[in-house]
Structures are given as structure tokens and as C-alpha cells.
């Protein structure tokens, strides 16, 4: 858990995971790089988008949506104070459940 926190810094692992999953979902839906840039508001290089497209194929759209939904539920639990567990611990459990 500490390693996850060190890798992500202040923003948190959950936010990074949500951003990546969002891009993976866009790729799994067959969107082009230009469309993904417009929707996400992020600048992506061609090689980055190609990497995301390759990853999206490995997960499949149903798994990506389930995992993204799980990240939103964890985020909501944290923000509403419905858990005493840390963000890293909850994220670890989430990844164990879906991967």
C-alpha cells in the first residue's frame, strides 16, 4: 500500500486509475485519438493512444466498465466517510476483486 502511495503522490492512486480506465473505455468503444482527446480534455501522443488501445483489448469493455464503476463507488465511500480504510487499501481490494 505504501508503494502505491509513493508512486502516485498527493493526487492518489484512485484518481490515476479512474483516468486510465476512462481512456481505456473510450478506446474499447472504438473512438479515435482525436475523439478521445476532445472527450477527455487530455493531450495524448499517437504512441500513447496506441498503447491504450492495446490495453483496452486485453481487458474488454465489460470488465473496464465494472472496474471503473468500482472506482467510483470507492471514491464515494471515501468522500462520505463510510469507511475507515485508506484509499490505497480500498484500491488494492478493488483490484483484487476485478483482476
3D structure, described in words:
Helix content is 77%, strand content 0%. It has 99 residues and is mainly alpha-helical. Helix 2 runs antiparallel to helix 5 and helix 5 (61-79) packs antiparallel against helix 6 (87-98). It starts with a helix and ends with a helix.
List keywords for this structure.
elongated, 99 residues, 0% strand, mainly alpha, 77% helix
Give the % helix: over 70%
Total number of beta strands: 0
Largest sheet: none
Q: Span between N and C termini? A: 17 Å
Q: Approximately how much beta-strand content do the residues carry? A: under 5%
Shape estimate: elongated
What's the gyration radius in Å?
A: 14 Å
Class computed from helices, strands and strand pairing: mainly alpha
Q: Note the total helix count.
A: 6
SSE succession:
HHHHHH
Unreliable residue runs? none
Question: What number is the mean pLDDT?
Answer: 88
Layout of secondary structure:
Layout lengths: L1 H7 L4 H16 L4 H8 L5 H14 L1 H19 L7 H12 L1
Helix pairs in contact: 2-4, 2-5, 5-6
In short:
By secondary structure, this protein is mostly helical. 77% of the residues lie in helices and 0% in strands. The chain has 6 helices and no strands.
